[in-house]
Design brief:
The complex is a heterodimer of chains A (137) and B (193).
Chain A (H helix, E strand, L loop, with lengths): L1 H21 L6 E2 L2 E6 L5 H14 L3 E7 L2 E10 L3 E8 L1 E11 L8 H15 L6 E4 L2
Antiparallel strand pairs in A: 2-6, 2-7, 3-4, 4-5, 5-6
Chain B lengths: L49 E11 L7 H10 L15 E4 L16 E6 L5 E6 L8 E10 L2 E11 L5 H27 L1
Antiparallel strand pairs in B: 1-6, 2-3, 3-4, 4-5, 5-6
Classes of the chains: A alpha+beta (137), B alpha+beta (193).
Chain lengths: 137, 193
């Protein structure tokens, strides 16, 4: 029975995707700020600890989780009522690409809030030896 | 709060309800795992709600003699289903897969939110589900490779879904969707030639 409903659901989703693709609709959501952080792999846990401290101080819930491609690759996701920060390892295990986004596509936080968060994140992760912090945007 | 924001686990093991948008997605939570189970950790076939699919599709026939750069360009424009080909993926851009991209500005689009990451040589792209995505947690890796004078794209989707029935839906539709999507890329390439 559950298999039947799952197949119906699958068929519905496939139809929805095909219909969705029939009329393509514009771009995604640009990051307001983005950074590339390179870490010393021997200090990855310290890096994660610093991210958690940053999240706690700035009111974010945080998820640090592995990707399915490898237990050595990670996804980072922080969210609070106005801003989401998300990133992941980008094929290189020591390199994290992290973007700062408005929580939704309707309400936009002031630029200064993003600038302050980037500075704050840099301050926290720079306490881990061997870390580089590059502001891409 | 150090735990998984979706599963609302804090270090003390308490379950909390987010007062923000997360509440709206509660309907999608997996009734088997329960709303407060921490699903973080390695993705594995040994864990519940596993899905995995493969698809290998031609992206450029030998007679078209596509160059490396042209294949990279195509991969950037057909990274995820529903992408507007005139709008290639950009670094640090959050994207929304079809059909949720049609609802931008409503909050519903986040049910299809992904991060797309491109390798330095441009021949590999990785779509990672955001925790709000109905197929979370999962990812799709796409790799372009030459065979003779032709180019192919291999698509590999994996994950342990945490939302209602989505592992089955993902398993049933994943390869079909990406095969159809790659076919659209080929059609456009032929029209250009």
């Amino acid at each position: 029975m559950s298999s039947k409903w799952a197949r119906i659901g699958a068929g519905f989703l496939l139809l929805a995707v095909v219909m969705g693709c029939a009329g393509l609709s514009g771009s995604g959501q640009q990051s307001r700020k983005s950074v590339i952080i390179t870490i010393d792999l021997d200090r990855r846990q310290e890096f994660f600890d610093q991210l958690r401290k940053f999240a706690e101080v700035n009111g974010f819930s945080i998820l640090i989780d592995t990707l399915s491609s490898s237990d050595e690759e990670f996804q980072i996701y922080m969210t609070r009522e106005d801003i989401t920060i998300s990133g992941a390892t980008a094929f290189e295990l020591e390199e994290y690409h992290i973007g700062f986004y408005d929580r939704d596509n309707v309400h936009f936080a002031p630029e200064t809030v993003f600038e302050d968060l980037v500075s704050e994140l840099e301050r926290y992760v720079s306490e881990v030896p061997g870390t580089t912090f590059f502001i891409r945007k | 709060m150090e735990g998984n924001p979706i599963n609302r686990i804090d270090p003390s093991g308490q379950c909390y309800i987010d007062s923000g948008n997360m509440r709206r997605w509660k309907v999608w939570e997996n009734p088997i795992n329960g709303p407060c189970r921490d699903n973080s950790g390695p993705i594995s076939p040994d864990k519940p709600n596993w899905h995995e699919y493969w698809a290998t599709n031609p992206i450029c026939s030998a007679w078209l003699a596509c160059t490396h750069d042209e294949v990279v360009d195509a991969l950037f424009r057909f990274t995820y289903p529903g992408q507007d080909p005139s709008d290639p993926v950009q670094p640090d851009e959050k994207n929304f897969v079809a059909p949720f991209d049609r609802f931008k500005g409503t909050g519903i689009e986040y049910l299809g939110a992904i991060q797309s990451i491109v390798s330095s040589d441009g021949l590999k792209v990785r779509n990672i589900s955001e925790p709000t995505h109905i197929f979370h947690k999962g990812q799709v890796d796409r790799r372009a490779f030459p065979v003779g004078g032709a180019w192919y794209v291999e698509t590999h989707g994996t994950g342990n879904n945490i939302y209602f029935f989505m592992d089955v839906v993902n398993q049933e539709t994943g390869a079909l969707i990406f095969t159809a999507w790659t076919g659209r890329c080929v059609d456009i390439s032929k029209q250009i030639v």
